[in-house]
Amino acid sequence: MFMKRWLKISLKIISVLVVLIILTWLAGAFYISRNKKEVLASILSQLNKNLNGQITATSMEPTLLKSFPGVSVSLNGVLLRDSLWAQHKHDLLKAEDIDVSLNVLSLIVGNINIKQIAINNAAIYLYTDSTGYSNTSIFKSKPKTEKKSSPKSSALEVGKIDFNKVSLILDNKKRFKLFNFDIDQIKGRMEYPDSGWVGKIKLKTQVNSFAFNTRKGSFLKDKSLEGTLQAHYSRDLDAVILYPEVLNIGGHPFEIGAKIDLAKSAFAINIAVDDVLFRDVALLLSPNISSKLLKFGIEKPIDIRGNIIDDGSGKYGDPLIKVGIKVRDNIVSIPAGKLTACNFDGSFTNRDTAGGVIGDENSSIKFHKLTAKYFNAPLKIDTFTVNNLSRPIATGLVTSQFPLSNLNNSFGTNNFEFKNGTANLRLYCKADIDNFRFTKPVVSGKIQVADADILYIPRKLHLVKSALNINFNQNDLSIQNGHFQLGKSELNVSCSIANFANLYYTAPDKILVNLKMSSPQLYLKEFLPFLGPRSSNKPKSGGNKRVVSKELSNVLELSKMNIRLTVDKAIYEKFTAKNLDADISLRGGGIFFNKISVAHAGGQLSLAGNIIQEAASNSFKINSKISHVSVKDFFYSFDNFGQNTITNKNLKGYLSSLVNISGRISHTGKILPRSINGKVVFNLNNAALVNFEPMVKVGKFAFANRNLSNVEIKNLDGTLNIRGDKIEISPMQINSSALNFNVKGTYALGNGTNVAMDIPLRNPKGDENLTKEEKKQARMRGIVLHLKAVDDEKGGIKIRWNKDHD
Is the pTM of this model over 0.85? Predict the structure, then answer.
């Protein structure tokens, strides 16, 4: 019974309340309908409180059902203009309609209390001119000398504020700021404690411009913002505080917090985001910053913390920006390649010097406690820094220790293959970055390579048991304690390269390597790959690997090299020399023998010349001086100079000569037949011509009783002019043990032999007791045979009478 009675009473009370609400609402609606002008004037009066300007509306219409049980009206053609609108022509607010929700009871008692405002299809333009005047001055408080009313009666306290389809522009010409938003929706729910106000704001907007400095571009360009913010205004601080909440920027959740100092027009924004792509975050920044950051790449998502701070002074234009990133097991692109398995804590700021200017010249990117693999070589860098983004300078201390085999397949081409060996490096680097490519580097430190097995494929050079210490001193490079083994050849190496670090990137063709080499034993044939063209190797992959490989290959091929070589014993096929002392230069496609001297065949040989590398074969030029060498051994060592008519088997004695010849040599080191041109001036001493076919034939033809198979010559001077397959013999007087004769003409390795010989029949043995002058006078007395050696039909040589003798 009791429950039934209580229910009846409750229903009666609720019914009465509903009736009262409806009656009150009807009374308010009736009042608005009968008093539109008065209500509009009252609303505008309420809205114009504490404004140094005026808000106007063309008309008002009741929209009774929008805010039931409250009453609402729609203000049409609303304009809000400051007192100086006539000068700058920017409406602070221009709205097609504004919905205003009113408190019914306050309406009835004649004191309109606005509980909700919805601004629809509007444009808000907050304008500051170049002198600092702003149309927001309309909101400045009236003079303090006025009698204060209670906060509740004088302040405009709106419980709900909604923006729908509103364009919001904040244009500050004095400080070059431009914030432009297309607001799809903002819903604010406000409360007004004595300390100020608190609100919950739900927003959905598009950012057209968020430029702290219009000369440098916009942050958040063309990005969407969506989320809910908790806000608090403190009267004591005269600041709005936005508590950290999740805000979707460009579709990714960011935790945003901020403090806005209204008195100083200053703000500080805190940003936190996890699991986001570096590129996506960089694109949220202004172009002057993002263009620098995007020179780096981070492939996998990272965690970021950041602050954007503006002190309101406008001194630097840009706000202070501090960003920290956390990278773990990632792939990072840097100007010189890629870092894999990369871990570091990174930071960016546009004011690296405390109290300094804010801008590119004082900006800094830092990588702290970096570990990574660079071309499979493990690196460790305590701090790597890129300072001054207007003219970037990179610095860092790099350490690494790894097996050289880690570098295989790392350079983007097959130029190198490493089988054994270790590398240990510690380098301090400082370099300018031109368009984020390293230039003008300064490097200090060393690289130690031990027990290396290296194949340089373009030249087919296989170096084993290799070790060296590479020292960097600022721009210069030196190699000490270098040891290489190429086949059976051993080389001890030291070198210096001035300005190497700078020229490596900017002008590799200007690199000059001063190389000193010594060897107990050198097999020259093992160095023949230098004579041939480089092998072509297509890159396995593109990108930075290919760029680095190309740079390194260009340096190896384009750099110039001066070589000072001393060798105890040098061997090339049949050629063996001792005490080799050589000054050699490598320039582009040429090998230049500046000075070479060797002990060979019992005498001394010195030469200068060059070999120029060409596609089919190589051209060479040689100026040589030969001093008292065994002619037999000399011809044997040089494979009879590409001919088989006069060979080492035909010769005895000692040769001194001046040789000036040119010709061609194959990529395998063979002198090409019939390619030699030049001049040979020679002297034979204590010589013999043994089993020389033309001489033997002359003996059979005219001197059957003389031994022309072993013709001894005490001394012979001669000059030979070589023209391909023809040797032009300048007139010579040959005095031998078997006969004396004069000879001149052309001896051909192929067709074209035409050698004239004038041979006196008198036997030189009969003149042995004559004086030198008497021998000279008696030499051509008696019968003289005038013969000619010419080609026969079978490709050999035949002797016939020379009817046209002088």
Answer: no
